[in-house]
Amino acid sequence: ARAVQAYEPSVDSNRNSNEEYANVKWEELRFGLTPTDYMYIMNSSEDGTFSKGILTRFGNMDINPSSGILNYGQGVFEGLKAFRTENGKILLFRPEENAKRMKMGAERMCMPSPTIDQFLNAVNRTVHSNKRWVPPPGKGAMYVRPLLMGTGICLGVRPAPEYTFATYASPVGNYHTGDLNLIVEEKFRRATPGGTGGVKAVTNYATIYKAITEAKAKGFTDILFLDAVAGKYIEEVSTSNIFVVKENVISTPPTNGTILPGITRKSIIQIAHILGYQMEERAIPVEELFDAEEVFCTGTAVVINPVNSITYQGRRIEYKRGAGTAAQNLYEMLTGIQNGRIEDEMGWVVEL
Ligand code: COI
User: Fold this and answer.
1) Atom 8 (ligand 1): residue with closest C-alpha?
2) Is residue 299 within 6 Å of ligand 1 at its C-beta?
3) The whole model's pTM is what?
4) Do strands 249-252 and 278-281 pair parallel, antiparallel, or not at all (unpaired)?
5) Closest atom, ligand 1, to C-alpha of 175
6) Which UniProt keywords are given for this protein, alphabetically ordered (predicted)?
7) Gap from CA of 2 to ligand 1 centroid (Å)
8) How far is ligand 1, taken at its centre, from the CA of residue 64, in Å?
9) What is the mean pLDDT of the chain?
């Protein structure tokens, strides 16, 4: 028996395709799981190649208690979005970038990975079979979550003998609601040089819950991590990259192995150039937060989120937000391209 069983769908995978929209209160969408109709599952062979992926009803999976993912966290994930345009098309934003990033992460975590084509095919089929769950234009997006995990049995500490690639999807709304008030985290660190901070390993996330929980208890929305060596330079927020703006110059820390190379981050750097901002990737001392005009976070889930305030060593700094800010200008262009309202000269969007 396979470590993870995926059953052929007992019904036609186009079952709901004649229904344009699922029954969802789109206005109330937040960033959380709304279960959809199908998920895509593909297992590896013993030689590490993937084949015969199938669409199956979304639901629980059988997994061996001794699997690599459950015992030692051998897993990476991705996140990307599909958008519905005003004229009824569905667009994916830069899915190939996610496919490539999963490959990099898999290599770091000693896992075989699906080919770029297999990844893209899985994402396409997942979105297509769940089309009725893609929100109406302007009401959110469909978040697609590809997972790659060691599902083979391994009680000893070693790479699992078998892997499963699974992709599921959920309509989502905003990640943060309300003002974004950050605190600079001074006790816990997210990533160390030589560690896995630069890949989307599942093990990067639960380790920051303690810091987030403590910050939330003090009334903050999220945390901003510093580098682990000097404790002096800003790195990233729990789920997003960070940008600092001063006098038409936009700066963000370089992705040197401890920072997640965000696809939104990369897109924003390019858009900033197009919009005429001076864009710098450089180490940013935490003190620079004190005289920045604007700070914003970027990520697939958070999109571009202007920061209201940051607190560091008891001092609270507030930032400019709204009309005329760099964050607003970048947001307009990014979301315009994603929603098909602005012509995509970069070739970023892919029609389903
Ligand atoms: C994303 O923005 O896609 C992420 O992966 C962040 C997250 C863990 C919600």
Assistant:
1) 239
2) yes
3) 0.94
4) parallel
5) 9
6) Aminotransferase, Transferase
7) 29
8) 26
9) 95
CA nearest to 177, candidates 69, 300, 293, 302: 302
Q: Is 300 in the pocket of ligand 1 (CB under 6 A)?
A: yes
What's the distance, CA 105 to chain centroid? 13
**Is residue 22 lining ligand 1, measured as CB closer than 6 Å?**
no
Atom of ligand 1 nearest to the CA of 80: 3
Can 103 be counted among the known catalytic residues? no
Which residues share a beta bridge with 119?
none
Catalytic residue (choose from 81, 103, 131, 200): 200
Query: What pLDDT does 49 receive?
Result: 95
Distances (CA, A) of 264 to 86, 119, 138: 22, 19, 18
Q: Is the CB of 56 under 6 A from ligand 1?
A: no
User: 27-75: per-residue pLDDT in tens?
Assistant: 999 999 999 999 999 999 988 999 989 999 999 999 999 999 999 999 9
> What tokens does 60 get?
């629980």
User: Tens digit of pLDDT for each residue in 238-294?
Assistant: 999 999 999 999 999 999 999 999 999 999 999 999 999 999 999 999 999 999 999
CA-to-CA dists, residue 79 to 165, 173, 261, 266, angstroms: 14, 14, 13, 15
Residue corresponding to tokens 């966290």: 73
Q: Whose CA is nearest to atom 5 of ligand 1?
A: 79
Residue 39 to residue 54: CA distance in whole angstroms? 8
CB count within 10 Å of CB 41 equals 23
Instruction: Give the pLDDT confidence of 156-178 residue by residue, as tens digits.
Output: 999 999 999 999 999 999 999 99
Is there an atom of ligand 1 within 6 Å of 79 CB? yes
AA letter at 158 = R
Note the ipTM here. Answer: 0.96
Where do the H-state alpha helices sit in the chain? Answer: 68-72, 95-108, 116-129, 209-217, 263-274, 326-338
Structure tokens at 186: 């001074």
